[in-house]
Amino acid sequence: MTTDPAEQIAAALARLRGGRPRPPWSPDGGAHGPWSHGGPHAHGGMSGAPPWAERGRGRFGGPARLRLLEALLAASDPLTVSEAAAAIGVDQPRASRLVQQLADHGLVRREADPADARRTRIALTDAGDALVRGFRGERRDAVSTALSDFTEADRAEFARLLAKFAEAWPR
User: Fold this and answer.
1) Overall number of domains in the chain
2) Distance from C-alpha of 39 to C-alpha of 33, rounded to nearest angstrom
3) Which of 18, 75, 114, 143 is deepest in the core (most CB within 10 A)?
4) What is the pTM of this model?
5) Residues 134-169: pLDDT tens digits?
């Protein structure tokens, strides 16, 4: 666990987040993520936006997709669909649909479980890793800006209390 208060606060806020995530591209169509500059998944729709953000394809992935990507990044090994479901607080069929959606967009890949050939594990692709790290970086930058007038002691205490609050938050 990190001792950096900004990182601790950003992680606590991620656990508490209830609204949908803001996409890593600007509202004017500019991009900041793996789809910018005509990357491997940039096609049609908004300039630099991932495929599911194209006009007519609905809202950005929603909190569950981002929670799944964050869970995969945090995991020490690829997760089974059941493990992913438990990690993000959804049932197994919902997790399967989320995995399929993310796989369709090249953000996750399925791998055979070396311990049991009947099971599949889910891992981030490079594009998925870049996307979730981009969200984390933006969140951490926003927290750092908000903490700029706090003393070092206030930052540490706020981080401790918010992390405690987030841990106790009903799931």
Assistant:
1) 1
2) 9
3) 143
4) 0.57
5) 877 887 888 888 889 999 999 999 988 988 888 887
